Amino acid sequence: MCGIVGIVARHPVNQLLYDALITLQHRGQDAAGIATSADGHLFLRKNVGLTRDVFHIRHMIRLRGTLGIGHVRYPTAGCSSAAEAQPFYVNSPYGIALAHNGNLINVEELKRDLFRDDLRHLNTDSDSEVLLNIFAHELFASGRGKLRINEQDVFDAVRRVHGRIRGAYAVVALITGYGIVAFRDPNGIRPLVFGQRATPEGIEWIVASESVAIDALGYKTVRDVQPGEAVFITADGALYAHQCADNPVTAPCIFEHVYFARPDSIIDGISVYKARLRMGVNLARKILQLHPKHAIDVVIPIPDTSRTAALQLAYELGLVYREGFIKNRYIGRTFIMPGQDERSRSVRQKLNAIGLEFRGKNVLLVDDSIVRGTTCAQIIQMARDAGARKVYFASAAPPVRYPNVYGIDMPSSEELVAYGRTEEEVAALIQADWLVYQDLEGLLSAVGRGNPSITQFDTSCFTGNYVTGDVTPEYLAHISVLRSDRAKKHRQQIIAKTKGCITDSL
């Protein structure tokens, strides 16, 4: 999962892009990058680290121009070096920088095609670099024989891209001297939205992963980019939109609403905050069904994502809601940390229990989801150490039993605590007195109620049914090797030796 943004402004765009990435920082803490364009030149700065650490005054000064794109990364495969930070850049044709959120399923096949047929060479293992080269090749084919390309050439190129790549992708690309194109996969798995604001000099445009970035910069949301659609904004501010897929289907990733998106975002017309409130309602009803005489004294969320659902759950059950854990805000989100050792170490650093809220009480802990289960077990033990008499656990999401192949770093099935286990067995493993998961039907109704026109969501991490219909057991075995904590640890050791590289400008 990553965060992307593209802006066409009337004044220098570097600070706007920086502010947008700060707003989208929750979508990736591993690396950040910005590319801008001015006078036919492209300027690029990217490196590993948080946005605030990657960009300093000297870098911002070099990022000239009134249009640009930005990216914050959390890696699902490949390595975490600066070389794989985004945006990526190619100088042929026209000079293109591209940032991508998602994951390509047929990336190995595409790599072979690029080398054999397209005569293009790759410098990293990132599927985003593959996507960039595919787009560059198809744009060259669409605009061949012309001195300048137009919006139709761009849309033809995106249509060809849709025909070649499979998986989930939301993309922003900067075409030097022309403008910015943004497009979304034909299933609309990854989110993408655009907005505008009026200035004395003319209309400015922004496209981003979440509406919160649009709001924070003072723009007004226009609408979501539709599945399969491309939006092209010229350097002088003209906007063109075109459907580039033959049979688009709206099947957005439901885990955005469970965990990744900020609660103040609206994705595909659905308020993330309202969806999480409804998750709390449905989860409360299930608890009453399974444990009508629950003897819960207090409801405590595991900060931060579960707060909204936990608050509504407590209200529905008529129980006291308390903040029992204080979070150190300088520790990253443990779910998206690159290795289990790092995740485990960070739990005690990140959370501290308030003993007064636990001592002698039967406590219900509420989390957004349970993935590996190791952090849940540590938190439950923290509650017991703080004096809790009983510790119950509730998950606002159903059991996660299958890897996500569309851009979320859920590991192989064998590393998922719910895989092949009943809810009672998971409860025993994490040492909860009892455990309640949200029903899939409850989650679907909580999210889907926000936009009844959406009749399908990607729920593959809960069901094993992948909306693109082309995920094979062989591919799952392949990503299992890439995403295992053992493989990540090995890659981190390689990075520590090579130290990566830093790109300041082109």
How far apart the termini lie comes to: 27 Å
Q: So what's the overall shape?
A: globular
- Total helices: the number is 18
Number of DSSP strand runs: 22
What is the spatial order of strands in the main beta sheet? 3-2-4-1-10-9-11
How much of the sequence lies in strands comes to 15-25%
- State the share of residues found in helices, binned by percent: 25-40%
Rg from alpha-carbon coordinates: 23 Å
- The SS-based structural class is alpha+beta
Question: Low-confidence parts, pLDDT < 50 over ≥5 residues?
Answer: 498-503
Describe this structure in words.
By secondary structure, this protein is α+β, with helices and mostly antiparallel strands. The protein is built from 18 helices and 22 strands. It has helices at 14-23, 51-54, 57-62, 107-116, 127-142, 151-164, 211-216, 255-260, 272-290, 307-317, 340-350, 355-358, 374-385, 423-430, 440-448, 460-463, 473-483, 485-498; strands at residues 3-8, 31-38, 41-48, 67-73, 88-90, 96-104, 167-175, 179-184, 193-199, 202-208, 220-224, 229-234, 239-243, 266-267, 270-271, 298-301, 320-321, 325-327, 351-353, 362-367, 390-395, 434-437. The longest helix is centred in the middle third of the chain and has 19 residues, at 272-290. The protein is globular, with a radius of gyration of 23 Å. Mean pLDDT is 91; it is low at 498-503.
